[in-house]
Specification:
Elements lengths: L4 H38 L2 H46 L1 H6 L2 H8 L11 E5 L2 E3 L6 E3 L13 E2 L2
Parallel strand pairs: 1-4
Antiparallel strand pairs: 1-2, 2-3
Helix pairs in contact: 1-2
Length: 154
C-alpha cells in the first residue's frame, strides 16, 4: 500500500479541513446570531425584535454557506478515500506483493473442495458456465465472470 500512502494522507487532510470549515460555519453563524441578540437587548423595545430577527437571519445567511462548503470539502476527501480503497484492493501490483496465504484468499471466491466439478456445456466456440450461465472461451476450466471451476464436457 506504500504507493498510495501520500494519496491517503491527502484524503485524510481534505476530510479534516472540511471539518474545520464546518466548525468555522458554526462559529460565524453563532457569533452573528449572538451579536443580533446583544444588539436587540440594548436597543429600544420597538426595534429590539427587528434587530434580533436580523441577527438570526444574518447568522444563518453567513454560517450556512460556510458549513455547506465544509460538507463539500469533506465529501471530496471521502470520495478520494473510497477511490483509493478500490484501487488498492483491485491492484494486481499490490496483490502480488502480499503473502501467498493472503493472495489466495483475495483471489479465490470460494474454498476448493474434492467434490466433482459441474460440467460446462459447449455452445459453438464457447463454454457456458453451469453456475452463472455466461459464455467462456473453449479450453477454459474456470469461469472468467464468477470464477467457478467447472469440468469441460467432451
Amino acid at each position: 500500500m506504500s504507493r498510495y500512502d501520500d494519496a491517503y494522507i491527502v484524503s485524510q487532510s481534505l476530510v479534516g479541513f472540511g471539518s474545520l470549515v464546518k466548525i468555522a460555519g458554526y462559529v460565524v453563524g453563532g457569533a452573528t446570531i449572538l451579536l443580533g441578540f446583544v444588539a436587540g437587548a440594548q436597543a429600544v423595545s420597538s426595534s429590539a425584535v427587528v434587530l434580533v430577527l436580523v441577527g438570526i437571519i444574518s447568522g444563518v445567511a453567513l454560517g450556512l454557506p460556510i458549513y455547506i462548503l465544509g460538507v463539500l470539502v469533506s465529501a471530496q476527501g471521502q470520495i478520494l478515500k473510497a477511490s483509493l480503497d478500490t484501487a488498492v484492493h483491485a491492484s494486481q501490483i499490490e496483490l502480488n506483493t502480499r503473502p501467498q496465504a493472503e493472495r489466495s484468499s483475495a483471489t479465490e471466491p470460494r474454498q476448493r473442495t474434492a467434490e466433482p466439478l459441474p460440467a460446462a456445456s459447449a455452445s459453438g466456440r464457447f463454454l457456458v458456465c453451469p453456475s452463472c450461465g455466461k459464455q467462456n472461451p473453449q479450453g477454459s476450466s474456470e469461469c472468467q465472470w464468477c470464477h467457478q471451476r467447472y469440468a469441460v464436457e467432451s
